[in-house]
Amino acid sequence: MNIETFISDAVRRSVEALYGELGDEQLQIQKTRREFEGDYTLVTFPLLRRSRKSPEATATEIGEYMAANVPEIASFNVIKGFLNLSLDSAFWAARFAEVAADERFGQAPATGRTVMVEYSSPNTNKPLHLGHIRNNLLGYSVAQILKANGHTVIKANLVNDRGIHICKSMLAWKLYGNGETPASSGMKGDHLVGKYYVEFDKHYKAQIRELVAQGQPEDEAKKNAPIMLQAQEMLRKWEARDPEVYSLWETMNGWVYEGFDVTYKALGVDFDKVYYESQTYLLGKSLVEEGLKKGVFYRRPDNSVWIDLTADGLDEKLLLRGDGTSVYMTQDLGTAYHRFEENRLDDMIYVVGNEQNYHFQVLKLILKKLGYADWSDHITHLSYGMVELPEGKMKSREGTVVDADDLIEGMVRMMDDTPDDFTGPVNIGNPNEFTIAELAREVISLTGSKSKIVHLPLPADDPQQRQPDISLARNMLGGWEPKIQLWDGLLKTIAYFEEVLSRGGIRR
Question: Which of these, 280, 329, 261, lies nearest to 161 by C-alpha position?
Answer without folding.
Answer: 280
